[in-house]
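A quick aside before the break. I want you to see a complete sequence-to-structure record at least once, exactly as it would be stored in a machine-readable document. Don't worry about memorizing anything.
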Amino acid sequence: MNTFIILTTKYIFYPILIGVVSTVCYVLLFDQLLKNVILPWYFSKKYKSTRIAGTWEGQGNAGSFVFKVILKQTGDRVTGEIFASTINVATKAVLKTNTYSFTGEIRDGFVRVNHKEKDRDSFGFGCFIFQIAGGGKTLNGSCLYVSEGDDFYRIATANDIKLKRSSN
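That is the input. The structure line, written in tokens, reads:
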């Protein structure tokens, strides 16, 4: 009986355990390698249009909003952060600044971005659409967004947004 347990452990349990552990390690490593190295490299090689990764700055709504956008690009996919400041046009004072994270895509010379508030104690989300202009040096567009007031939510727009590339 003792020999049976030893043989069962040696010839059945250990090979199964080694197989399971090696499969899990392979899947986890390959998945990370595929997502973080192989696919980004492939999409960057495949993508042949304007590259817009970098830092962008500008304003919208006749100066009532100031934007700074940090944009990362992999192929036709974009991600990053938007810093949006609300400005008192008369005094040029910054009333508030919100930070948003975003994901989006580039299609036919346009960039579509869905953003959401990064601060979990605040509420805001929306969608920017930009046209790539000036050989990739300017993004012109608008934003439809939902923001919170003191006791309500409102749907609003920011128009005539013009962003210029400040760094690559």
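Two observations worth writing down. The chain is about 25% helix and 50% strand. The longest helix spans residues 2-46. We'll return to this after the break.
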